[in-house]
Amino acid sequence: MFNKPGKPVDPSATPQPKVKRHPFRWAAFILLALCVAVYFPSAASLVFLVAALLICPIQRFRQLSFVQQVEGKLASLGLPTNLVLNIAAALVFVFGVMITPTTGATRSAPTATGSLLYAASDIEYSHDPVNIFDYVVCTDAKAKLEATDDIVASKVGNHTVTFRVSRGLFSNSEESVEFTVRDTQPPVIELAEDSVEVTMGDSFDPSSNVTSVADPVDGELAEVQEEQQARKGEPGLSRLYDEGWYLVSSADTSEAGEQEITVWASDQHGNEATASYQLTVVDPFEGLHFNKTTSVLEYSNKQLDPTKLIKCSDPEVAFTADKINLSKVGDIKVTYTLTKDGATRKEVRTFHVRDTKAPRISVGQDELSIEQGESFDPYGNVVSVEDEVDGPLARVDEEPGDNGDGWYTVQGSYDVNVPSKYFFTVVACDRNGNRVTKEFSLLVKDPPAPVVSAAEEAPSAPTHDYIVNVNTGKFHYPYCRSVKAMNESNKWYVTTTRDDLIAQGYVACQNCNP
To answer: Which residues make Cβ contacts (< 8 Å) with residue 513, sequence separation at least 6?
Structure first.
């Protein structure tokens, strides 16, 4: 027991050992008392209070029965009591430092506010593992931070992660943080060339200049023929759309010039990218002169090689064409195929087929004569009527309204019972309207004079040589000047009397007065 001040000391009493003071114990007690003051009545503070009673240098507390039992147990084991208590005080001090919050912290349990700092709330889409602690920093450097959830960065969207902040065995808090996984990287389009040159007419695949189209995370994208956003939902296309796609615009090599080929790409999260290159379509026939040597062809039953009707300025150009059928009059289009350096080109030229040749008429005689009353057929004097292409023409009695396949007829009137000179015209027309005529004449003679006996024969007028113009109906002496201007075909040489000619209807010439 402690001696009270002013009370006399009993000399017979057994002297008590002097309690040795230990400054380290006082320091530990002060630290623990501070913890109790700051965090009381937390469970950790009560534990520290009990531990402080074990090592408290106040004698009264040390005389407690359970403390004396502990010291007695240590003494029975032959262990130095003070040393053991000092070691215990040191261990309590170290343990208190480990689990005791920093001095000056709030008295209430720690909360999320002010505990965690977020380096970033967005996480880039990836198939690689994510270290969540790269995105969170704790404001308490001595606190232990644990994550109860993992983030799968290969899944775009919001992810909630719960963090446990530990400041000791009995000082823990949890905080939920929402992170968003975003895909912000567009596809990467790689082209083989920035510009491509092809020959006009050649086949060209615009995709052949596309080296690759890939998403930085998902890899290669599939090529499609139509933009998938317009076709999403069609059977068999949803999977292709979900994995991303790319589309290449079409190319037209039928005409020379420059075109821009565009590549559109979209990954599964809607990130888009475009790239383009220049396509130049070269015309190997540029500046070529391809002209006709003639435009008009003669109607014929033959076939003509049209390559002979063309002049080309480039000797390296080969050209072919189907043969021309000349048996049809009118315009005809010929398609030429030009070839150079593996390229082809079509050129169309128009020719006109015309028929300029009339049929040919052949007659037996130009001048015919018969006796009065004899039979006569004018068609009998027509030997042939034929066209060079159409061949023999058909006989018709009257001129038809159209050309048909060609025809001929004989025009002219006559009377075999009336002596006179008659004229006929052969008219022929081929199927293309070419007409031709040819004339011939028929002389119907007087019947022979009746034979009379010498007794009956009376003196007759003298006969003379006359030339009758059968065209004008006048007769002349052979020496008459009008005879020289007369057409030979109109002359009729006759020896008779003047009266006989007048009786036949002819008139004497007024110049020579026969």
So the answer is: none
Average pLDDT of 80-86? Answer: 68
Return the pLDDT at 50: 59
User: Which of 99, 129, 152 lies at the terminal end of a domain, its last residue?
Assistant: 99
**pLDDT over 70 (residue 147):** yes
In a domain, 239, yes or no: yes
In whole angstroms, what is the distance from residue 123 CA to residue 366 CA?
A: 117
Residue 297 has pLDDT above 90, yes or no: yes
**Strand 296-298 relative to strand 318-320: parallel, antiparallel, unpaired?**
unpaired
Q: Which domain holds residue 87?
A: 23-99
Query: Does residue 111 belong to any structural domain of this protein?
Result: no
Geometric angle at alpha carbon 218, from 213 and 219, rounded to 5° = 40
pLDDT at position 104 is 33
Of residues 235 and 409, the one with the higher pLDDT is 409
> What's the angle, vertex CA 388, arms to CA 385 and CA 394, rounded to 5?
35
Region 119-127 average pLDDT: 78
**What CATH number is associated with residue 158?**
2.60.40
DSSP conformation class of 284? T
Within a domain: 417: yes
Tally of structural domains, the chain: 6
CA angle 277, 208, 183 (to 5 degrees): 70
User: Distance of CA 171 to CAs 49, 59, 165, 330, Å?
Assistant: 17, 33, 8, 110
pLDDT-based confidence at 212, cuts 50/70/90? very high
Residue 250 lies in a domain: yes
CB-CB contact of 207 with 265 (8 Å): no
Res. 356: pLDDT tops 60? yes
Cβ atoms of residues 307 and 319 within 8 Å: yes
Confidence band, pLDDT 50/70/90 cuts, at residue 1:
very low
Instruction: Determine the Cα–Cα distance for residues 489 and 492; give it in Å rounded to an integer.
Output: 8
In this structure, the dihedral spanned by the alpha carbons of residues 212, 216, 220 and 226, taken in order and rounded to 10 degrees, is: -80
CA distance 445 to 447: 6
Q: Quick one: average pLDDT of 101-124?
A: 50
Mean pLDDT, the chain, as a whole number?
A: 78
Q: Is there a single domain that holds both residue 200 and residue 275?
A: yes
For residue 509, what are its two tokens? 């010439």
Q: Of 410, 407, 415, nearest to 378 (Cα)?
A: 410
Residues 6+ apart with CB under 8 A from 500: none
The Cα–Cα gap between 104 and 405 comes to 127
Phi-psi domain of 88 (left: phi exceeds 0; alpha: psi -120 through 50; beta: other)? alpha
Same structural domain, 202 and 278:
yes
In a shared domain, residues 238 and 205: yes
Distance CA 125, CA 223 (A): 23
pLDDT for residue 384: 94
Last residue of some domain: 411, 445, 479? Answer: 445
C-alpha–C-alpha distance, residues 249 and 261, integer Å: 6
